[in-house]
Amino acid sequence: MYAVFLREVKSYFGSLTAWVLIAVYLLVTGIFSSYGIEGFARWSMTAMQGSESLNINEVLVQNLLSTYGFLLLIFIPMLTMRLFAGERRAGTLDLLLTYPITEMQIILGKLFAALAVVALLLVLTLSSFIIMHRLTPLDWAAVASGYTGLLLLAVCLISMGMWASSLSSSQIVAVSLSFFGGFMIWIFSALDQTGILKERFGDLSALSHLNNLTKGLVDTQDVVYFLAFAALFLFLTARVLESRKWRG
């Protein structure tokens, strides 16, 4: 598994794709953060004139973390589209499956490699919150909880992206299927108009669970939600690889 992890990390940072995606993500989040900080400073001055105070965690931090999560819906499918589709197109997947490691070890190696890229990306976005802290004290526990939620969301989306990538040699198909699946679980609450599914299975919207964590509310239900989704798609990916291995 470690060998697969190193191979994938070198592949990411040895190509231009990862660097371009990271640069674009940081540019977009930087724009949102700068506008958010500027807006908060303006609203704070207005509120102070009315003898009121604004809570930066409620007004800005939670919204920014949710925005970072939504942007991951776009970023991660482009990060995962080549994980298996690229191997199939290059003809190296069958060779990889002959290595003395299990399908799950291959999958986990690729998962942790993609997660390492996302973790680096999220660490770089912390600069925005450091700037905010210079303006007004932040609830760093809530920020830490929010970033934990982003990492859990990333694990879920990477797992879904790997499954999509394992289905076809086309990276376009992989990125489209991954993005569509991620978007569906993001807005699931809006799709469940009657509330029947929520009543029977709980809230299935990734946005709702991420929002709980951005508020600093660490609940095992939110953690289990993301890990269960990830486990499901890791299992499905393993079954796809296993069937391909047996087909020879």
One letter per element, helices H and strands E, the order comes to HHHHHHHHHHHH
What distance separates the N and C termini?
22 Å
The oligomeric status of these chains comes to single chain
**Largest sheet data:** none
Low-confidence stretches: none
Which overall shape is indicated by the principal axes computed on the Cα atoms? elongated
Task: State the helical fraction.
Answer: over 70%
- Strand segment count: 0
Total helical segments:
12
Question: Which whole number gives the mean pLDDT?
Answer: 85
- Which class best fits the helix and strand makeup? mainly alpha
- How large a portion of the residues is in β-strands, by DSSP E? under 5%
| Radius of gyration of CA atoms, rounded to a whole number | 20 Å
Can you walk through the features of this model?
The protein is mainly α.
Would you summarize the structure shown here?
84% of the residues lie in helices and 0% in strands. By secondary structure, the protein is mostly helical.
Q: Characteristics of this structure?
A:
single chain; 248 residues; mainly alpha; 0% strand; elongated
Write the layout of secondary structure elements.
Layout (H helix, E strand, L loop, with lengths): L1 H12 L2 H34 L6 H25 L1 H9 L2 H5 L5 H33 L4 H27 L4 H16 L1 H4 L4 H6 L4 H9 L5 H28 L1
Helix pairs in contact: 1-6, 2-3, 2-6, 3-7, 3-8, 3-11, 6-7, 6-12, 7-8, 7-11, 7-12, 11-12
